[in-house]
Amino acid sequence: MLEQRSIRLFENAIKSEITRKGYRYQLDKFLEWSKIKDFDSLLEAPEKNIQELLEDYIMYLKKKVSPNTVPVYFAPIELFFTMNDVDTNYKKLRKLFPATEKSASGRAYTRQEIQKILRNAKTKRGRALVFLLASSGLRKGAIPGIKLKHMKKIDENSYSILIYEGSKQEDYVFTTPEATIPIDEYLDERRKDGEYMDGETPLFRNDYSLGIEKVKPCATDSISKLTGRLVSCIERKKITKRRYDVQQEYGFRKFFSTIIKNTMGITPTMTEKLINHIGVVQLDGNYFKPTVEQMFEAYKKAIPELTIEDSERYKVQNQKLQEQLSEKEKLENTVEELKLKFDRHEIKRNEQLSKQEKRIKELEDQIKSDRV
After folding, report:
1. Is 246 found in the same domain as 123?
2. Looking at the 3D structure of the chain, how many domains does it have?
3. Which of 68, 95, 122 delimits the end of a domain?
4. How far is CA 119 from CA 113, 247, 308, 345, in A?
5. Which strand (E) or helix (H) includes residue 216?
6. DSSP state of 154
7. Same domain for 217 and 125?
8. Which of 39, 77, 43, 49 is nearest to 61 (CA)?
9. pLDDT in tens, 29-83
10. CA–CA separation, 206 vs 323, rounded Å?
11. 304, 309, 311, 313 alpha-carbon torsion, rounded to 10°
12. Residue 273 falls within a domain, yes or no?
């Protein structure tokens, strides 16, 4: 079925696929709230009625979401009416926006808190989500766009995941060996439930009763509801009316970022790359282009501290220690081999010198004999 022209105009005004999906989602929510059957019907209402509808929606949002979020939710609606030549009083509408609140910088979840959250996760889906957020530092908005074709095992135990495909923010994130296991278990559960999977299958799907139901990516609102239930076991301190000292999803990203920044051996520029920031300086984004393998080599340095469960972290630390001991043994063996080579070389050199001295003595004796 051909999309209504009003929506085609709206979507063609948005260049980024990620932004397009986010804007369409918010516009659909507005249509659902308005109880009007479709978008073309929405445009048929008199402009006065549309103006009142928008005013009422802003007042509705003020009761439901953060003051800082109201302009974000309203932007897609404004674009829709602008692209369809509906003249409304946006100056008046913006006067209805609530005063913005100062964003609390907030703290990261502690490892102990994440352990508690995992104990509160009763489903494979919940555990996979928590481990993914903590081990990769992903933003919530990146998750709906991840498909199985974006995931590859970069070694036996870790995934590399392409995020924001086709956009300026396109990049790679990684999972720890600990996080890879619950992600695979979640995917295996869906296969056993009858879901057909291919490269286009979303990493996280919507809730389902039967695996064979049509698969849709898990929307950001659904992710927020899930993480909200998972982190409800954590005591979070309220900073403002709607904000806490640790943000619901962003607390995982801060946990990841803190560890990456504190890991020895990762350069500042690579640190920003792993966190999916533009770079230490503006030009880093244009000129610093490490390979996926180079990024993973840097990421591996942080795996011991990114590992959540104590038992798993001890295993990783022990493995790292064994690798260091192995490297030390290799180095010691190399030193011994070099010493042996040097000793052999010295013996051979001394033998040659002895032969030369003996020959010189013989020549000297010969000269003396000839003189006599």
Report:
1. yes
2. 3
3. 95
4. 10, 19, 12, 64
5. none
6. S
7. yes
8. 77
9. 999 999 998 888 888 888 889 999 999 999 999 988 888 889 999 999 999 999 9
10. 42
11. 0
12. no
Mean pLDDT computed over 85-99: 91
Residues 64 and 167 in one domain: no
Position with higher pLDDT, 317 vs 107? 107
Structural domain for 9, as ranges: 5-95
Strand partners, 202: 147
Last residue of a domain, one of 204, 236, 251: 251
Instruction: Please tell me the predicted confidence (pLDDT) of residue 42.
Output: 87
Give the DSSP letter of residue 98.
P
Query: 124 burial class (0-12, 13-18, 19+ CB within 10 angstroms)?
Result: middle
At residue 274, what is the residue type? L
Domain shared by 118 and 82, yes or no: no
State how far the Cα of 17 lies from the Cα of 166, in Å rounded to an integer: 8
Closest CA to 50 of 65, 31, 68: 31
132, two tokens: 């993914």
| Mean of the per-residue pLDDT values of the chain | 87
- One domain for residues 116 and 247: yes
pLDDT tens per residue, range 277-291: 765 555 455 667 899
Residue 267 domain flag: no
